[in-house]
Amino acid sequence: MEAVVFGADRSVQPGTARDPLLVFAADVSLPAVLDLCDGEVQRALGTSDSELKAPWLRAQERHRLGREDLPATQALGEAACGTGTVLALRYPSYRHEGVQNLVVFTGHLAALGGGVVLIDESGTYAQRLP
After folding, report:
1. pTM for the whole thing?
2. Does the pLDDT value for residue 127 go beyond 90?
3. Per-residue pLDDT tens digits for 20-75
4. Contact residues for 77 (Cβ-Cβ < 8 A; gap 6+)
């Protein structure tokens, strides 16, 4: 897990990398997931495991400063979210071989019939989306 912190000017301030810590569990219903772990999907989109696993955080900040193009992974995410028909992206972890991650476009949950319930017995993080 890599912490992402936003500065007062909304700039991305990369945090330190650390092992993941499970704080809560989630029950999800995501009927429209684009599976970027699927080789056929990657070929159709013109991407690859190596591109999907490339570090993006610092490159994104350089893009924000006008120093380089938006990282391919971020451009793909923006395009997928922009369709309004994709609820989530499943993608390979760049830190841990064989591990898959999921990013959920929460703004589309209601329209596409999805949902996320965060389960936390302490009640600190428990919530339901949408």
Report:
1. 0.75
2. no
3. 665 678 899 999 999 999 999 999 999 999 999 988 888 889 999 999 999 999 99
4. 89, 103
Question: Residue ranges per domain, the chain?
Answer: 25-129
Residue type, 49: D
pLDDT of amino acid 12: 67
DSSP β-ladder status, 88-92 and 100-104: antiparallel
Record the tokens describing residue 105, joined without a space. Answer: 């476009």
DSSP H or E stretch at residue 60: helix 57-64
Residue 61 corresponds to which tokens in the numbers above? 């900040």
| Angstrom distance (rounded) from CA 106 to CA 108 | 5
Beta-carbon contacts of residue 16 (< 8 Å; ≥ 6 apart): 2, 3
